């Protein structure tokens, strides 16, 4: 093992504090609302920091390293593009979710849709996301833990997942969402501090020789650009055009769901009010996309010099299983050069990142299985204490399955692409279901089924659709096209949502817009709703979305240009970001105005 006594003291001290927070907050978890939504009384800053901590998982630096080593800095558009859907959630959907009053986002189905199809969709989606999809995400995070455990601690994959799983389950099952939030607050600063330390040490590695030498190294120079080279149209399409024009609105990915959803929605439900909900998601998107990436990118660039190919990993770490010695191993490999004391801080930051992500997914997944499966279909009269007990039991079960899945995965980018393909084509339905009355439960079922089986087809077909080989972006385009046509067709051919259900939804949420105009007129004539006279907020929200996205991208690239030493350009972009923030400040009162 590389860790010495001082490193272990730092790590064990953090674990004790986390367990203490779990025990302290466990006393308030007397019902499902407290356990899964912290009673709906949390402030925006705590929720926003928690979102950032959750998405700062152990596999995220590995994913960024994998991307940078193979495709350069510009390869990060694969996830930078999701800022667009994040900002759309901030200024259009965050307030709507809070007004819906549901405990989980899958409970929304029976608020928006009617009939047996809505009930089936709620139950199926709860199992699909809460168990199957959730296990895949946690397995990806655990895979990163396996690589870190193998490189830094000399642990086998089985030893890593067992140790990490036991610690996380104990902590997660105690405090519920409130415990997750308070511990995430500590974990955020640990994780960010650890990433900065890792970047500093990587830059000072003898083979790197500091920032100036890094930026002029022959193996790094062609990977520094923020955008793909115009001389390579294939890379330009794959790395920039597809993410910005198609991927962000068309695919479902945890933490970047079009229209909001998942654990992001869970945090919004836990907010004091719509204002706190909006501010929490805004803080998350700024911190996630503009503040955190550069320390990871710097480590990834340094790893190219120190470990120029995959064979260098095998030579440096012969005890590590060759199956996991892929490009995403560059990040944990660079951590081995951190000196004692600082290494303890960095390892603790990675443990914190792991715990924050896994604990959120365990609580989120169990909330689906308890609220939307057990209480809805099995035992509607279940007591609060029984729901909390079952939620804790399910955290153990989810953790076990995710550990087993982690043992068969190989790299973070592989998992990222699989998840994108599974959700290809479903994103638009989550955006439109709030504003187009014709979307129904069958629409969503068709979208899920078609996208899932297309993903399986692409994974196992030797010559999909007669082509010898399809690139990942080509599969995405085909998947989005077929899935979208399928669910739109189903929307017109299947039974409409009942007027009573639509009236209930409109009276509670009031999303507004031309997609409801015809229905509002009909329901008003029946006396089922009272038309609202307030101006539709979505156009203002879209302006704020554009300003917010441009401002965050400006801040992200301004930071990069400062690092690259281009001070004049960096200052200009920073000023541009400030102006974008001013636009949002002036328009924000319209966004939170009461209906």
From TrEMBL:
GO MF entry, a single one: D-glucose:sodium symporter activity
Membrane topology summary: Multi-pass membrane protein
Residue intervals passing through the bilayer: 6-24, 36-57, 77-96, 126-146, 152-173, 185-203, 293-310, 330-354, 389-409, 415-432, 439-460, 472-493, 542-564, 570-588
InterPro entries for the chain: Na/Glc_symporter_sf, Na/solute_symporter
Subcellular locations according to the entry: Membrane
Family matches, as Pfam families: SSF
Keyword entries, A-Z: Membrane, Transmembrane, Transmembrane helix
GO-annotated cellular components: plasma membrane
The family this protein is said to belong to: Belongs to the sodium:solute symporter (SSF) (TC 2.A.21) family.
Protein name (Swiss-Prot/TrEMBL): Na+/proline symporter
Organism in which the protein naturally occurs: Marivirga sericea
Lineage: Bacteria, Pseudomonadati, Bacteroidota, Cytophagia, Cytophagales
């Amino acid at each position: 093992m590389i860790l010495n006594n001082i490193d272990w003291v730092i790590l064990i001290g953090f674990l004790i504090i986390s367990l203490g927070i779990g025990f302290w907050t466990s006393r308030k978890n007397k019902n499902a609302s407290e356990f899964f939504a912290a009673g709906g009384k949390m402030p925006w800053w705590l929720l926003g920091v928690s979102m950032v901590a959750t998405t700062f998982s152990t596999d995220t630096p590995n994913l960024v390293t994998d991307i940078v080593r193979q495709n350069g800095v510009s390869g990060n558009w694969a996830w930078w593009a999701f800022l667009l859907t994040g900002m759309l959630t901030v200024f259009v959907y965050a307030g709507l979710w809070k007004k819906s009053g549901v405990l989980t986002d899958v409970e929304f189905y029976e608020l928006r849709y009617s009939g047996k199809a809505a009930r089936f969709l709620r139950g199926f989606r709860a199992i699909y996301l809460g168990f199957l999809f959730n296990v895949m995400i946690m397995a990806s995070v655990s895979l990163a833990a396996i690589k870190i455990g193998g490189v830094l601690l000399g642990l086998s994959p089985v030893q890593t997942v067992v140790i990490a799983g036991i610690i996380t389950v104990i902590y997660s099952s105690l405090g519920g969402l409130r415990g997750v939030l308070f511990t995430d607050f500590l974990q955020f600063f640990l994780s960010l501090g650890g990433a900065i330390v890792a970047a500093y040490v990587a830059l000072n590695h003898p083979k790197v020789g500091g920032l100036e030498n890094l930026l002029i190294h022959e193996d790094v120079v062609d990977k520094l650009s923020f955008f793909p080279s115009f001389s390579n149209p294939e890379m330009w399409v794959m790395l920039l055009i597809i993410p910005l024009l198609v991927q962000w609105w068309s695919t479902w990915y945890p933490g970047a769901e079009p229209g909001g959803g998942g654990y992001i929605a869970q945090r919004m439900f836990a907010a004091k009010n719509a204002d706190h909900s909006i501010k929490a998601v805004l803080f998350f998107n700024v911190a996630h996309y503009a503040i955190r990436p550069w320390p990871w990118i710097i480590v990834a660039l340094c790893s190219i010099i120190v470990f120029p190919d995959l064979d260098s990993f095998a030579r440096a770490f012969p005890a590590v299983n060759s199956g996991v010695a892929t490009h995403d191993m560059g990040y944990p490999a660079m951590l081995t050069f951190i000196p004692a004391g600082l290494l303890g801080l960095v390892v603790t930051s990675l443990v914190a990142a792991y715990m924050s992500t896994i604990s959120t997914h365990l609580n989120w997944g169990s909330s689906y299985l308890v609220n939307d499966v057990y209480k809805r279909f099995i035992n509607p009269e279940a007591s609060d204490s029984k729901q909390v007990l079952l939620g804790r039991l399910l955290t153990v079960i989810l953790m076990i399955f995710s550990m087993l899945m982690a043992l068969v995965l190989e790299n973070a980018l592989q998992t990222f692409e699989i998840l994108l393909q599974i959700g290809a084509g479903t994103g638009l339905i989550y955006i439109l279901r709030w504003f187009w009355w014709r979307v129904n439960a069958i629409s969503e079922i068709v979208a899920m089924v078609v996208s899932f089986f297309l993903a399986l087809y692409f994974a196992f077909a030797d010559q999909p659709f007669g082509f010898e080989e399809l690139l990942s972006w080509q599969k995405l385009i085909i998947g989005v096209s077929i899935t979208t046509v399928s669910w739109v067709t189903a929307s017109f051919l299947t039974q409409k949502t009942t007027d009573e259900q639509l009236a209930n939804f409109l009276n509670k949420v009031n999303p507004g817009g031309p997609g409801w105009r015809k229905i509002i007129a009909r329901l008003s004539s029946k006396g089922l709703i009272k038309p609202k006279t307030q101006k539709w907020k979505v156009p203002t929200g879209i302006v704020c979305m554009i300003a917010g996205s441009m401002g965050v991208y400006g801040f992200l690239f301004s930071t990069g240009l400062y690092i690259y030493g281009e001070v004049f350009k960096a200052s200009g972009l920073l000023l541009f970001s400030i102006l974008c923030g001013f636009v949002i400040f002036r328009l924000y009162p319209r966004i939170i105005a009461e209906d």
